[in-house]
Design brief:
The chain contains three helices and no strands. It has 86 residues and is mainly alpha-helical.
Length: 86
C-alpha cells in the first residue's frame, strides 16, 4: 500500500510549494505598497504657489504681447502650411 501512487504522504502546509506560490503574490503587493508609502513620505511633492492661476495669466499676456501677428487659428495654420515663395 505504501507504493501506491495515489496515496500521498501527509506533510505540513509550509512544505507544499504551491502554498508559497499563492502567498508570494499578496506578499509582493504588501512590500511594494510599503516601499511606495516610504518614498511618498520621504520625498513629498513641492507645494504649488497660492497665486499660480494669476501668474499663469500674466505669463500668457506677456507671451501674447510679444506675438505681433496675433492671427486667428485658421490664418496661422494656413500661413504655416504655405511654402516659402522664391
Amino acid at each position: 500500500m505504501m507504493n501506491d501512487p495515489l496515496v500521498q504522504e501527509s506533510r505540513p502546509w509550509w512544505k507544499h510549494g504551491e502554498v508559497w506560490l499563492l502567498i508570494a503574490g499578496p506578499a509582493t503587493v504588501v512590500v511594494a505598497a510599503c516601499a511606495t508609502a516610504w518614498i511618498a513620505v520621504k520625498s513629498p511633492d513641492p507645494i504649488v504657489d497660492a497665486d499660480y492661476y494669476r501668474r499663469g495669466i500674466e505669463i500668457n499676456r506677456t507671451l501674447a504681447s510679444r506675438d505681433k501677428a496675433n492671427l486667428p487659428a485658421l490664418q496661422g495654420r494656413n500661413h504655416a502650411a504655405t511654402p516659402v515663395q522664391p
